[in-house]
Amino acid sequence: MIEIRHLTRVYDGVPVVNDVSLTIGTGELAVLVGTSGSGKTTLLRMINRLVQPTSGQVLVEGVDTATLPAHLLRRRIGYAIQGHGLFPHRTVAQNIATVPRLLGWPRARIDARVDELLALFQLDPATFRNRMPHQLSGGQAQRVGVARALAAKPDLLLMDEPFGALDPLIRAKAQADLRAIQQKLGTTLILVTHDMQEAVDLGDRIAVMDGGRLLQYDHPARILTQPAAPFVRDLIGATDRPLRLLSLKTVGDLAQPGDAEGPAIPPEATLHDALAECLWTGRTALPVQGGGIVTLDALRAEARPR
C-alpha cells in the first residue's frame, strides 16, 4: 500500500504540488491525470525521491521513504518514462538486466528473468535478447522499457506518460498489454497521463490534479458521473461522458439470452466497441461469442448516468 500524506513541493515560493494526500491499495493501478503544469509528474517523482518533497510524507507498506537511502529506494521501485529511455549502447538483455545486476543477482537468475519478461511481453527471447534499441520499433522499445522497470520484481511501478510517443494503434495495444500484465503480476502501479480516456481505460482509481492540487480521487465511474469540480467536468468532456462510461464495462457484463444475426462480438469487447458496431452495421442487437446477445437499447441505458 502507498500512502501519500500532505505532500508539497515548492519552487521559488510557488507550490507546484500543494498538500496532496491519497492512498493506493496493493495491486491497484492509479492514474494521475491533469493538464501540463498540474503537478502530476512532480508528485510521481517525489514518490521515488527524484524530487525531494518540501513537506509531507510518502509511505510504502508503512515505511517512510525519507528514512531510506535514495539509491536503495529507487532500486525497489520500477520507473518507466515516455520514449522508453533505453541505454542505446546496451542490448535489450543488458537493458532489462540493469537493476538486477546492481542488486548482485547471479548471472543465471538474471538470464532467466530477462527471458521470462521478454516472453511475457510477446518478444521472442532468441530473436530480441541481443538486439540494440535502434533495431526495435517504437512499440517494441516501449515494452522493453517497461520490462526493464519490472526486472527486479518491484512491488511498485511508476510510469510517466509511457505511451505518449506511440501512434494510436500501437498505443492501444500497449495499454491493453500493460493492464493484462499488471493484473497477472499483481504489481501496484501509478501512471501519469494527460489523456482522460487513457485514465478511464486503465485506472482502478483516478486522481485529477490542477494547479498542484488534488481535485478528486475516486473510481472512474464516479469521476465520470459525479465530477467534484468544474475542472474535472471539463476534463471529462460533456459529449464524451457517455462513451467513456461504456468503455468501463465489457459485452460479457451486459449479455442477455437471445439470438441475433450477423458476426458475433467477443465478450471481452467493451460496450463502447459494441455501440460502434451497432451504429456502423445498423444492427439493433449483436450476438455474443459463447452465447447471448447485447442490444442497442441496453447499450443506450448503460450510457446514462445513474
From TrEMBL:
<feature type="domain" description="ABC transporter">
    <location>
        <begin position="2"/>
        <end position="236"/>
    </location>
</feature>
<dbReference type="GO" id="GO:0005524">
    <property type="term" value="F:ATP binding"/>
</dbReference>
<protein>
    <submittedName>
        <fullName>ATP-binding protein</fullName>
    </submittedName>
</protein>
<dbReference type="InterPro" id="IPR027417">
    <property type="entry name" value="P-loop_NTPase"/>
</dbReference>
<dbReference type="InterPro" id="IPR003593">
    <property type="entry name" value="AAA+_ATPase"/>
</dbReference>
<dbReference type="InterPro" id="IPR003439">
    <property type="entry name" value="ABC_transporter-like_ATP-bd"/>
</dbReference>
<dbReference type="Pfam" id="PF00005">
    <property type="entry name" value="ABC_tran"/>
</dbReference>
<comment type="similarity">
    <text>Belongs to the ABC transporter superfamily.</text>
</comment>
<keyword id="KW-0813">Transport</keyword>
<keyword id="KW-0067">ATP-binding</keyword>
<dbReference type="InterPro" id="IPR017871">
    <property type="entry name" value="ABC_transporter-like_CS"/>
</dbReference>
<keyword id="KW-0547">Nucleotide-binding</keyword>
